[in-house]
Design brief:
By secondary structure, this protein is α/β, with parallel strands linked by helices. Helix content is 64%, strand content 10%.
């Protein structure tokens, strides 16, 4: 787990290694300064030797400046290494998420993935920076200060034998209890992010139903749950500082008592006592820093575990990278295909599907809600893989193609229309980044989108805003269809993608498809019979099975479900 995450240090390894080197230089200077101070007090001030005081004082100032320089360099190196590490880790996480299939994305909620890419990476970055600085500094300072203190006065050093074990035991107990609490806290963060995301996406619905107060109350409760989880996790951690301070002040009082008696009796110099107190402070401060490191590691361990879950997740759809297969035509064949979202053949969404579709055919698909119409077509570009059976495109198993080759030849306009920040032209070029202006306009004309685009002041350079907020639902659908057409695919799938346009526009889009995509296999999922009536064949889906297949006239004669839908829509129209 840690090895994979630490590999993200990458090209910043030099800075990560220079940090502890400069830290060692800083610590060595800080360990020597109290010894020099003792010499100044006992050999200079006590003896009245001004020259010695000036000489050793100059040396001490120089050592302080060197320590400051090393500290500044360590801070810079740690910052560069930490920021670079976080950049690489986020990039690796994002690339991993991009490799996920729909099934993998379904496993992690969107809000959870956002938390892992932001909060969890930040926690891990902070832990990494603390490790390369404090995890080097504190042990060296701790051991070095103990050596210097024992060397200066072994008897007085016995104070440490009483205090240190008690402090270590207390910190171990605190740290061991903290981890599960921080893990629970991060899960609460996931819930809060999910609520925020859901609310922002559906803000128009919230406004339309005047539910602002309800949403505010809900968010207040969720935020309060996060606060309670934070308090519950951190109230253990905050106990660490008082425990350490009690140990530190107890040690200093004991040193002042016993060391003061030694100084009065003459068995210990005044300078040595002052330096010894400094070393005791360094020892206890180092121990405090070590405890903070462990606490930070406990806090970040939960984040590291959550990041590792994403990095360790294996994409359920494997790319056939070494394949050189090309999609020759748009023929599609389903052979004994069954599919389950849960890999459970007792709970299937599609069951025993057999279809043979010739290249260039137009296939309509209708069925009730939950009849698995969308699931059926998502198997063609391998957005999901079959649980049983095989899907063939161009006469070859879809699993034999490189994913890029397969998906470049299968254009899909999804049920939920998604546009991205940027101009209309930027969004359309998702279909073909090298498309010329004339090709873009032609695709928009086929999708009945050119007229409304030309009505905007900036036309195709019009900024869409986040998610296309300044266009209507029907306009979004038409832009998404144009984007798919620019791919010049061998297969195009329209998943209920004309539901937000009027019947006349729907008819014009279908007419343009017949005229300009005669060689392209077209799948049209629709609720309206009028949208699929002219298809070469129409598939009627019911509970994950094919209930009927044929032309409009054939289904009107032979299929009760199709006839019922048609008649109900005709009555509605009347």
């Amino acid at each position: 787990m840690y090895k994979r995450i630490l590999s993200c240090v990458g090209e910043y390894k030099k800075y990560a290694l220079l940090t502890p080197v400069t830290i060692i230089g800083e610590v060595l200077m800080e360990l020597l300064i109290p010894a020099v101070m003792a010499m100044i007090i006992d050999n200079g001030i006590k003896q009245g030797d001004v020259g010695y005081v000036v000489k050793m004082g100059g040396i001490m100032i120089l050592m302080s400046l060197v320590s400051l320089a090393f500290g500044a360099l360590a801070g810079r190196f740690a910052a560069v290494a930490g920021m670079g590490f976080a950049k690489n880790l986020r990039r690796k996480l994002f690339a991993k998420v991009q490799s996920f299939s729909f099934a993998n994305v379904d496993k992690f909620s969107t809000s959870s993935l956002i938390t892992r890419l932001t909060t969890d990476v930040t926690n891990t970055q902070n832990a990494f920076m603390m490790v390369i600085r404090m995890a080097i500094r504190s042990p060296i300072m701790f051991i070095g200060a103990i050596i210097m203190a024992v060397k200066m006065n072994p008897k007085l050093s016995l104070v440490l034998l009483i205090v240190l074990p008690l402090l270590v035991i207390a910190m171990v107990l605190i740290i061991s209890k903290a981890f599960p609490r921080f893990l629970a806290m991060l899960e609460k963060y996931d819930g809060m992010n999910a609520r925020v995301q859901e609310n922002l996406i559906g803000i128009r619905v919230v406004k339309a139903f005047v539910r602002e107060k309800h949403e505010k109350d809900n968010f207040r409760n969720i935020a309060d749950n996060v606060r309670k989880a934070q308090v519950f996790a951190e109230k253990l951690i905050v106990m660490g500082m008082p425990v350490m301070q009690i140990g530190m002040y107890t040690s200093i009082v004991a040193v002042l008592w016993f060391g003061g008696n030694m100084a009065v009796s003459g068995s210990m110099g005044t300078g040595q006592l002052a330096s010894f107190i400094t070393y005791i402070t360094q020892i206890l401060m180092s121990l405090m820093m070590l405890s903070m490191i462990f606490i930070m590691l406990v806090m970040s361990r939960a984040s590291i575990q959550r990041i590792s879950e994403v990095l360790d997740e294996e994409p359920s759809i494997k790319d056939c990278e070494n394949s050189t297969e090309k999609v020759e035509d748009g023929s599609v064949r389903f052979e004994n295909v069954s599919f389950s979202y849960f890999d459970d053949m007792n709970n299937v969404a599609l069951e025993n599907i057999n279809l043979d579709i010739k290249s260039g055919e137009t296939i309509g698909i209708i069925g009730g809600t939950g009849s698995s119409k969308t699931t059926l077509v998502q198997l063609i570009p391998r957005l999901y893989d079959t649980t049983a059976g095989t899907v063939y495109v161009g006469g070859k198993d879809v699993k034999s193609y490189p994913l890029e080759e397969l998906r470049n030849n299968v254009a899909m306009v999804l049920q939920k229309n998604v546009l991205f920040s940027g101009t209309i032209k930027d969004n359309l070029k998702w279909g073909d980044e090298n498309a010329s202006d004339s090709e873009i306009i032609e695709a928009c004309k086929s999708a009945c989108a050119d007229d409304f685009v030309q009505s905007f002041p900036d036309k195709y350079e019009t900024d869409m805003g986040q998610g296309g907020v300044n266009v209507s639902g029907g306009q979004k659908q038409r832009l998404c269809i144009a984007r798919a057409l620019l791919k010049k695919p061998k297969i195009i799938i329209l998943d209920d993608s004309t539901s937000a346009v009027d019947t006349a526009t729907d008819s014009n889009i279908r007419k343009a498809f017949r005229e300009k995509l005669s060689d392209t296999t077209t799948f049209i999922i629709a609720q309206r019979i009028s949208s699929v009536k002219d298809a070469d064949r129409i598939i009627v889906m019911d509970n994950g099975k094919i209930n009927g297949i044929g032309t409009h006239d054939e289904l009107m004669k032979n299929n009760a479900i199709y006839r019922e839908v048609y008649e109900s829509q005709q009555k509605g129209a009347e």
